Every structure is written in structure tokens, then in C-alpha cells.
Amino acid sequence: AFFGLLSCGSWAGEVLDTHQFLSHICVAGPGLKDFQEYKGQAGTKLTRICREDLSDRGEKILQEFLETDPDLPLYISIDKDVLRQEDARTNWDQGELPLDQLLRWVDLAFEKRKVIGVDICGENPSDTARPISGKDLQINSRTNRALLLFLKKKIKSQVILD
């Protein structure tokens, strides 16, 4: 935690190091260097999909993660800064993942596991040094709507009771 505050991404490392019931986490998007800088105790509980692997090996790595413990429930946290600029405008380092690829991955997660919750972060706050443009708002609104509609559909179609 940075000055005691959790960011969209820092909570993952915090939970890995402190939550005894968490069995594993998959993080997609940061660069290899960022993963190498993780000094936490729970490195064996972390599946990494580096920025460099997103387009070619990312889906295979995710599939292996999802198939490791198929009976365990899954929580999905989407940080929109993993997306390319055409699909999201954030005030952090911008990713390179196309929205349609993210949606395929989320679809795969719902197919392979029981999803118990989802959160989305990565809005560009209006109090940053760079003002939000109309184009930024348009892109973010389009992506937010696509994510919301997709997730609502997936959650409604998921079997609640086993």
C-alpha cells in the first residue's frame, strides 16, 4: 500500500501477502519488470500474464490458471488501464489489451469457474493534471457500457446453485 492507501493494482499484492484463505491470483497486464519487482512472500500464489505475453501467450496462461482448481470460486477485478487507448483513457500507464480480447478472457473465466464477484476500476478522475476531454469521456463511456452489459449477461446466465 502506498502511504497506507490501496490502488487498483496494489491491493492484489497486499491480499497475496495477508489473506490466508486466498489460494491463487492471476494478474494480467503489468510489464515483466513490474512482476520482477514484486517482493512479497506469496510469489508461488501468483500467475503472471506480462504485458509482453498478452497477445500471444496470455490466453493460454489464463486457461491453465482457470483449469488448475476448477472447483474454487473466482473473483474478477478489472483495471481498465490494462486496455489500449482506443478502448480506455486512464491517468496511469496505458495497456495494450483490446477490449474484445478482455471480454473473451472474462467469458472464458465464466465458462471455467463459478464467478462470485466482479469489480471494475480505472476511471480517469477529473482532478488530475491532464483535463478529461470529450473524446476520453466518450471512449470510457462506451467501454463501461460494453463491460456492464457483457457482465450482466454473464452473471444472469451463470448457475447460482450447484
| Backbone CA Rg | 16 Å
Oligomer: single chain
Q: What is the SS-derived class? A: alpha/beta
Side by side, the strands of the main sheet go 1-2
What share of the residues does DSSP label as strand, in percent? 5-15%
Number of strands: 4
Helix content: 25-40%
**Average of per-residue pLDDT values:** 83
Largest sheet: 2 strands, parallel
Order of helices and strands: HEHEHEHEH
Q: How far is the N terminus from the C terminus?
A: 37 Å
Low-confidence stretches: none
Shape: globular
Number of DSSP helices?
Answer: 5
Account of the protein in words:
- The protein contains five helices and four strands; from the N terminus they run H-E-H-E-H-E-H-E-H.
- It is an alpha/beta fold.
- It has a domain at 55-125 and 132-156.
- The strands form two sheets. The protein has a two-stranded parallel ribbon.
- Helix 3 (58-68) packs parallel to helix 4 (99-112) and helix 4 (99-112) runs parallel beside helix 5 (134-157).
- The N and C termini lie far apart (37 Å).
- The model has no long low-confidence stretch (mean pLDDT 83).
Topology at a glance:
Blueprint: H1 10-18, E1 25-28, H2 32-36, E2 46-49, H3 58-68, E3 74-79, H4 99-112, E4 115-121, H5 134-157
Parallel strand pairs: 1-2, 3-4
Helix pairs in contact: 3-4, 4-5
Summarize the structure.
The protein has helices at residues 10-18, 32-36, 58-68, 99-112, 134-157; strands at residues 25-28, 46-49, 74-79, 115-121. It has 162 residues and is of the alpha/beta class.
Keywords:
alpha/beta, 4 strands, 162 residues, two-stranded parallel sheet, globular
